[in-house]
Prior knowledge:
Elements: H1 6-19, H2 24-45, H3 50-61, H4 63-66, H5 71-82, E1 91-96, E2 108-114, E3 119-121, E4 125-134, E5 140-149, E6 152-156, H6 159-162, E7 163-164, H7 169-174, H8 176-181, E8 193-195, E9 200-208, E10 249-251, E11 256-258, E12 280-293, E13 296-303, H9 320-323, H10 326-330, E14 345-349, E15 356-359, H11 362-365, E16 368-370, E17 374-382, E18 387-404, E19 433-437, E20 457-459, E21 463-464, E22 473-479, E23 484-492, H12 502-506, E24 507-523, H13 531-534, E25 536-549, E26 552-558, E27 589-592, E28 596-605, E29 607-608, E30 611-612, E31 614-622, E32 628-633, E33 648-656, E34 667-671, E35 674-681, E36 684-685, E37 700-703, E38 712-715, E39 718-722, E40 726-732, E41 743-751, E42 757-764, E43 772-775, E44 779-784, E45 789-798, E46 802-805, E47 808-813, E48 818-822, E49 830-833
Amino acid sequence: MSLKDPSRALVHLKIAASQTMSWPSLNLSIQRALTACNERCSILDDAPPTDMRKSFIQLLINSDSCKLLSPNEIKDAQVKAWEYDYTGSITREVVWNNDDTGKLNPPFEFAVSFLNSTHATTSDKVKACVSIKSCLDLQVEIESMQLVTTSGIFDVPNLSQSAVKRTQLKSLVRSEGSRRETSSFAKHEQGGVEFNRNDLTFFMTELTLPSNLSDVALGGVDTSKFIPKSGRLCNMGLSHSAGNICESRFDNEQQKININGKPISISSISESSSFFLGGVPLVCHGIVLTLKHDNSSLKLQIDRPTLISPLLRSGVQQSMMEESNYTAHSWYRPAHHPWFLGPRVLRVLGPRPHMHVTNLTEPQTHGNAVEGTVNRIVLKLNAGIDEDCSDVRVRLKCTSSKTPRITSEQPTDATPTSPNDGSIDVEPDRMPIFVRKSKDSSTKTVSEGGVTLPTGWSPREDVGTDESHDVTTLLSSHLEAGKSLLCPLDIFRPLDKSFPTPESDAFTCSTSYEVVIMYKQVRAGKDSTNSNDSCDKVMVMQSGSIEWITPFKAGFSQSKGPKPFPCGIQHSSNMLLQPNPPSVMGNEIVIADGERVHMRCSLKANGLGSSVTASLLDVINVSSSNQKEELYSAGSGLFINQTNQGSKLSLSYSVLAQKDIESANGQETIPLGVISVNWKPSSLNLPDGQTIKDDEFGSTHGPLCLSSVSPMIFHGPQCKVLSSPFSAKLLKCPSTPKVGVPFAVKYQITNKTAKSQSLVLNLNDSQDEQQLLGTGKSKEESQLAPFEAKTFSFTFMSMVAGNVGRPSLTVSSSRHQTYVINETHMPHQTLFVMP
């Protein structure tokens, strides 16, 4: 048939040749017959023998059949395989694939491993070692080489310059100097490398990794029949070398995971179905060799898809734990490729920022911020020693809430709760807000929530509460490697000017913030001529929280304790028949109308780290009638140490309790004084003399010392002012009487009503009666006419010197059944009698 009808024979011979690839001798006989048919067809048809050229190429690249050729046949096959193509192409492309049995030997064995590490970063330049071993029985010259990887095709330049013999490998890998010399291969004269049978040559090259991980292709062999049990991934777990492609697709209907071995782009896989633990794997699964002969070339591509996946066979896996082992897969290699050349799988990580962010403020303030002034948080940005940073930008995100204040009574070993337990929203007009200095220093700004900002300050535009906010602020256009930059963040919360309530002291306000610093990274040794292509966009996140504190704390107390002259006010604590003694009636303060109360106010600056929050300028008592009484002034010349923690300033003042005449009810609650404190924030100096350029507060942080801040208002304790039918006072009482000399104690009581009043006097003289002698009635009843004032006098004489107790007096009203004078609840009253 091949002699009489060669065109019909070609069809059958091609089918036979494709089905006898595993029988080299039989296949060679068929190829010889196929060659004869091609030659006869070309003579009869006068057409270019294209199929003939392909058959010669297949004979040469099939190492098993090439061994059976005679030297003359090999020479003749080379000439016909490389001869000029009638289509005008000098280079022909041939792809070698293994058959289904996997028993065919490739024309060249190859392996690619990575020298320095098992991991790398995108856009890095990594060292790689390529080993090529010829399995052909003919001499060939490799003119050029390309590596087919999961991240694309990489050229291996200057083969003659990068070729290394096996005996030189260890010295080259161990020698750091030699590695530096070969880190960038010079473009010298181009030349190929000749290979004979079993020749082994290593090539040192450098690969520039892609900057986009979505270009990495996955897959390899068809493993669609492999279904891991219970929906588990086919691996033993993570290892340092990694290497497995962990990609899964979950079938909700069958509750199984289907492994698809076909190459696929990462961008087409949803995040929920793909997992790349420890970086995206980069592996070389093919090689393209340009074989030169005379003036023509043959481009041979050898694909080994099984190198991508550790699953070397389809079907149900019997030894899943071993075949899916990460380490075994990553370090798998041919016998001719030494182990010390590194793993053949490289895990490629995304660009990582090397910038280090340090909060300079938090160690000094212990995470506290002062209300009423702008607080500065200074972050120090240190660029990595191997990166240049350009277009450095910042974006902020913050949230504030009020949480229950932790008191000393609460157990310290309580079970922690979630951050939202017991938290409430912050008042809109007191919401903490990040601010910046306005261009106009006289600008007065009110935020959308109603927060009145200090003059010359305005809200920042780069602050958001979620990820959708993408406004950024430029910090620096360029930051050199190893250099640092100070980033100031200013935040403000106004003082509480509302009347204090028990609930207001039970909660504390805290602000959590997140700073996102974005920049374009150019790593050392990387060409930065084109900023758009060579720069990697990276970001650094810095989180923190601050707790808001007031500049000062204030404590109030009565200077002389409770008064012994209740003046007949009608209150449960002043009734003759009390249901409970005054000691268990609470801390309610009751004062008669027109009575003057002496108070003491103690001011203490809150601590801010090892310093204090602020210093006093002046203290003013503002009464209800808007009368101002200056209690303290920093310019008065008084010496007070407020630079250290724990120092207090105690001030005394008096309050005249007066009812509002227009008030319709019989009682009125007023504060015992309104104290206005003008203060100045105490700023902290930046460590090591650092300063922020072109900034008014360049060398300070923490609470900024603004030119004007709102005064802090403290309200004294609340008291009830009740109408009193009487007024009483002590007219005379000697402080130091003498032994044997009589002295008088006089009281005056005035009836403030238009009715006649009956008073009952009781002098309790049972105590110390042997030390103090008295004259007059100890018990009597007296009448007071309307608006009458009467004086009650008692004469005493001491028989001993020293501290002598004075009898207590009670005067009660028969009409109102209340006390006008009650000294029984007062501390024991004594007189110091002189000898």
